[in-house]
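If you are new to this repository, start here. Below is one unmodified record pulled from the training split, so you can see the exact layout before writing a loader.
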Amino acid sequence: MSQSEHDDDDGVPPITEQLREARRGFRDEETGRIRSLVDSDAMFQALVGALPFVLWALDGEGRVIVQNAAARRQFGETLGKRSHETDLPLEVQQTWDANHARALAGEVVEVDFDWVIDGEPRQYRTIIAPIREGGKTRGSIGVSIDVTDKRKTARALEESERRYREIFVHNRAVKLLIDPATGRIEDANPAAAEFYGWSLEQLRGMSITDINTLDAEQVSAEMSRARAEERTHFQFKHRRASGDVRDVEVFSGPIHLDGRELLFSIVHDVTERNQLEEQLRLAQRMEAVGRLAGGVAHDFNNLIAVVLNYAAILERRLPPGAPGREEVDQIATVARKASELTKRLLMFGRREIGGLAVADVNEVARDVAKLFRASAGDGIVLRTELADDVGAAAVQSTQLDQVLLNLLVNARDAIGSEGTITLTTRNVELDDASARRLGLAPGTVYAEIIVEDTGCGMSADVAAHAFEPFFTTKPAGLGTGLGLSVVYGVVRQAGGHVSLRSEAGRGSCFTVLLPTVQRPRGQTG
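And here is the target side for that same chain:
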């Protein structure tokens, strides 16, 4: 008994039964040859019948000689039929014949098509290949694989990738992916490369300890806290490729990516914000001290006025040379000095009576420079660089005198016996960002006054307290600590800004910005 006969007796797989049914309708030798090729292994045929994807085979004339269950569900019963004998739409029949013809010509055809199964649109990937036997092409065999879900997954991955790029890559916030076990920067976005000054390739090869100013142990401890979500917000100082250090806020937490736990960190530069906050704290501290100093000075000035009045009465009663006259003169001298001191305190506390006027900045600068040179000493050189077009400042000329004299005297004391002071004036117009950073009005032209010296300079700690009243580094009896406080009070009262740049051993530079005004003809401070 042949194998095929045995299969007939013991139960034939469905696909083989189909072939035998189709065999009765095959009329030529070519069909029989194709049939025998496909029917050569009953077990294989059983496997084909159970395949989840669509499979079919056509003979040389285009008849269906194999159709598995999936093909029947999709196209209906087509076994033994040619395309025009089926109930398939005309467009599908034409595509069927065209692809079969290409396969008979020896081509492997790969096409995509859409089909509706149970009312649901599905996408299929189809491959049709020639069947060869004895050096001749006897027919074609095709498979169609439902790729709907796969393509949905692919689209979901593409959408996920797009969102990732939008959130991580294209977003302007600085972002880092860090391996918490090693501190290695696994990934960074272009905004990070722009902020830090290293390329993306360089950043991806660096450790977070190359950026964070904390030591390795501290960085590791902070990453552990972020990893355990004990803390998600940090204040750090980060280095950049240029060598400067910036204050940053870091929001960091664990994420899982490709089976790994990483730290996702968003870095925000807060250097300017911290500077503004420090300026606000200084302004609030100075305001409080100013109110206190102004209140004390106002009451003290009334007492000094009484002392001066009594001293004047005694001076009139005691002629020069009379016993006690010298002591009265000393009382009057000291009282007048105390009165001057209270005037400075009142000026700092913004309680000095008198409105703002308009001062010619260059005119005041020339007068003060002339007066200063007369008393500066032979070893002190004062250079003036006064721009011709400097505007008039909204401040009393006597107050501007006080500002410039205090700055020049402070520079002279820092230099000692020999050195150079440079007094510069010019007009500047601040951009919006710079104006906001300094707390000034944008779009205003400011008169900039710079006093720079080659003196001993200040440490960071001394510079931080330089404008505070009664703060001085001079020996007892050689300074009141009110000179720079008066500068600060006058400038702020005029709506301007004063800043200090200094470094120990490398001199100091004070920059004053005063808003300019259109001076009425003939008016002076």
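Two things worth knowing about this chain: DSSP finds 17 helices and 17 strands in the chain. Residues 155 and 161 are 10 Å apart (CA to CA).
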